[in-house]
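Budget justification aside, the reviewers requested a transparent look at the raw inputs and outputs of the sequence design task funded under Objective 1. We therefore reproduce one unedited record. The lines immediately below are the structure tokens for a 355-residue chain.
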């Protein structure tokens, strides 16, 4: 029900100038990062859809003082960006009007946008709001809505909607629609608008299908799932009877799923000793076993119960459970009955009730 699918770009970019120069017709993104001396820096434009490859804008090395500069002859397109410095990553948004952007920060905190910005009102706004979110800690639904409303551009509004409301998307369909309408008007025919529109449509369609089908109801026994894991060993949901189990439909290609994984890992580590477990069903494509296995490792999904028939949307368990968008989750009680459907924002509360 509350789940997410896939998300958004295709942009042609000119040849890059990777060294500083005095020409006035260049567009520059530069920074000075404490403790980043001589580290490699990669700047990329990224999209909502994890299937859309990022566009590399420049790769340079910081000097001994942690300074770097990336230049090109055309403006940086309005979009979402990812800056990788050594092992650290910083996501941010530009509006396309920037001529020369510079920032100062520290390697230990740039991923939390603890930076000082010049040359981009949009980046400065984004950094300010992220800093407020970090200070606030866990956000209530009301706080999340407030941050979305305070976003400085329609793209930022859509990005915050996805980040802050994605785990409980069906409860926030109106917010997704509002963000979609604003983004479509501001950036028509762009990958960002097209992909966010697809995402919003998929959420609405999933809700309609789930309401119409009514295949899985709270209180009914959870249908059996029995499939091989990455090692070829067959794992069955029924083998976990007596535990509280989260059935998690996901895939390596699904960015919202990957974004939700850290929260699932957190709950698993906190309650596994009390009888909580996770049964992960991957909707990866045929021939993508390596990507599935790599995602399990990268996201630290340390439980043993990973299964898949590698049939993408033709997955037999997905059809059985009426899953048409992911992530989709079902919480099963110790007796093997469905106790909650898509418990995301309140997952810990629901788990505690059953334990």
């Amino acid at each position: 029900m509350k789940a997410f699918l896939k998300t958004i770009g295709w942009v042609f970019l000119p040849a890059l100038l990777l060294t500083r120069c005095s020409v006035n017709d260049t567009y520059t993104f530069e920074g000075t990062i404490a403790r980043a001396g001589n580290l490699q820096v990669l700047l990329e434009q990224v999209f909502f859809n994890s299937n859309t490859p990022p566009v590399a804008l420049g790769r340079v090395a910081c000097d001994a003082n942690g300074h770097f500069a990336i230049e090109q002859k055309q403006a940086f397109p309005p979009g979402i960006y990812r800056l990788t410095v050594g092992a650290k990553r910083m996501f941010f948004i530009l509006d396309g009007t920037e001529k020369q952007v510079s920032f100062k920060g520290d390697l230990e905190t740039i991923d939390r946008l603890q930076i000082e910005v010049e040359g981009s009102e949009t980046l400065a706004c984004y950094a300010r709001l992220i800093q407020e979110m970090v200070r606030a800690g866990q956000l209530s639904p009301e706080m999340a809505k407030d941050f979305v409303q305070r976003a400085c551009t329609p793209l930022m509004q859509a990005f915050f909607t996805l980040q802050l409301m994605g785990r409980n998307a069906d409860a926030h369909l109106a917010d997704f629609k509002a963000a979609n309408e604003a983004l479509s008007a501001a950036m028509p025919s762009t990958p960002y608008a097209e992909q966010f529109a697809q995402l919003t449509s998929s959420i609405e369609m999933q809700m309609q299908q789930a309401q119409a089908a009514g295949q899985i109801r709270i209180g009914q026994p959870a249908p059996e799932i029995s499939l091989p894991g990455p090692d070829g060993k067959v794992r069955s949901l029924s083998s976990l009877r007596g535990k509280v189990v989260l059935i998690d439909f996901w895939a390596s290609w699904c960015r919202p799923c990957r974004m939700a994984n850290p929260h699932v890992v957190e709950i698993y580590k906190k309650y596994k000793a009390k009888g909580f477990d996770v049964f992960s069903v991957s909707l990866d494509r045929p021939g993508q076993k390596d990507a599935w296995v790599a995602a399990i490792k990268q996201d630290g999904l340390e439980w043993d119960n990973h299964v898949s028939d590698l049939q993408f949307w033709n997955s037999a368990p997905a059809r059985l459970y009426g899953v048409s968008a992911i992530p989709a989750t079902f919480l099963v009680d110790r007796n093997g009955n469905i106790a909650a459907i898509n418990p995301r924002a309140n997952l810990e509360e629901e788990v505690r009730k059953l334990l």
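Residues 226-354 form a domain with the Glutaredoxin fold (CATH 3.40.30.10). Residues 88 and 100 are 23 Å apart (CA to CA). Computational costs for records of this kind are itemized in the attached budget.
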